[in-house]
């Protein structure tokens, strides 16, 4: 006999798509190791992740960057420097007449561990650690916004179907046909103009909000398409039909039945999207339409460093290496999270 929730009266059997069903599938995919038996899906995924050395190392690198971003004011205070003071212009012996650091390797010394910025003479180390904050704040905010939009529209298109699915699908097709980089560059002045009047001084939050909104415009479609496909398959499952028979409303079915089965693709896609937003934000700043002075930013540091490539390669080296390491670590972490959730992908 079937209960109103779609589960049988047998205590050892549960409805498709339930937590115990996922646990059975996860256990079947797990290695033949007694330590994996009887574990919940979450613990199985955690065990798989801990066995992936690349994922663990990548997670440590990402956590290091996050900790540096959070503790940037404390590090700056202990270091005794800040990213706004023009040390090279305040002391005549730190920069040459042409604006280059007088010391070797970009002015690296006991006082300035990563050297000085050519021209303005700011401390490179504090520019780097505060640049991490800028990139992470924008990337995390964009990831949260695009995930919310992608989840809402993807589930709506997949579960409701019909005209809703057709309309959302055509919107996704149109937006994905735009050349993303040109579209981002063109929309930045428009978004900035909508937020602040021309005769007003731009507030400090404006670059963060503008870049976040612009990146979010073209960042949600991939997740929405994935969730639409999964929702289309889930709505035909027996436990969804059972919920409909019991009189459950569409909202209850979406939040109680469909959404719990979508956390894996949501988490994996969000993890993989965040480093892409970091590089996209840096690209906008590199092109001069992203975060502006005096806010520290990796993309603008790389753009400024490119102009001094022949005379002071050190200034370009530090932000370039930092961005490559962070983005690579986050991409490897995303791959490891995906493999931990679905071990069939690495077979």
TrEMBL record:
Domain of life according to the entry: Bacteria
Keywords, comma-separated and alphabetical: Cell membrane, Membrane, Transmembrane, Transmembrane helix, Transport
Official protein name in the record: ABC transporter permease
InterPro entries registered for this protein in UniProt: BP-dependent_transpt_permease, MetI-like, MetI-like_sf, OppC_N
Region (Disordered): 1-34
Pfam families linked to this entry: BPD_transp_1 (PF00528), OppC_N (PF12911)
Cellular compartment(s): Cell membrane
Predominant location: membrane
Domain ABC transmembrane type-1: 132-334
Membrane topology note: Multi-pass membrane protein
Transmembrane segments: 55-79, 136-162, 174-196, 208-227, 313-333
């Amino acid at each position: 006999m079937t209960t109103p929730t779609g589960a049988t009266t047998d205590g050892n059997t549960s409805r498709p798509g339930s937590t115990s069903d996922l646990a059975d599938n996860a256990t079947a995919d797990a290695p033949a190791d007694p330590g994996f038996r009887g574990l919940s899906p979450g613990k199985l995924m955690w065990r798989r992740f801990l066995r992936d050395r690349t994922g663990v190392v990548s997670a440590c690198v990402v956590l290091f960057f996050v900790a540096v971003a959070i503790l940037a004011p404390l590090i700056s205070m202990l270091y005794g420097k800040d990213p706004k003071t023009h040390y090279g212009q305040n002391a005549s012996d730190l920069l040459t007449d042409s604006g280059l650091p007088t010391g070797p390797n970009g002015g690296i010394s006991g006082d300035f561990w990563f050297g000085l910025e050519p021209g303005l003479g700011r401390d490179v180390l504090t520019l780097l650690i505060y640049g991490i904050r800028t990139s992470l704040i924008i990337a995390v905010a964009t990831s949260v916004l695009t995930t919310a939009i992608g989840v809402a529209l993807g589930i709506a298109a997949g579960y409701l179907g019909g005209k809703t699915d057709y309309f959302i699908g055509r919107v996704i097709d149109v937006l994905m046909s735009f050349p993303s980089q040109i579209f981002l560059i063109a929309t930045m002045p428009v978004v900035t103009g909508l937020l602040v009047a021309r005769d007003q001084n731009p507030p400090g939050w404006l670059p963060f909000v503008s870049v976040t909104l612009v990146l979010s415009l073209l960042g949600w479609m991939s997740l929405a398409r994935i969730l639409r496909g999964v929702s289309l398959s889930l709505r035909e499952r027996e436990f969804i039909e059972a919920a409909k028979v019991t009189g459950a409303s569409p909202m209850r079915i979406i939040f109680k039945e469909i959404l719990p089965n979508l956390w894996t693709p949501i988490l994996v896609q969000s993890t993989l999207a965040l480093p892409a937003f970091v590089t996209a934000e840096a690209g906008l700043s590199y092109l001069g339409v992203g975060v502006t002075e005096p806010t520290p930013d990796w993309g603008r540091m790389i753009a400024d460093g490119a102009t001094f490539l022949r005379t002071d390669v050190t200034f370009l080296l530090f932000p370039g290496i930092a961005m490559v390491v962070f983005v690579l670590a986050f991409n490897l972490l995303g791959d490891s999270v995906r493999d931990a959730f679905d071990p069939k992908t690495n077979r």
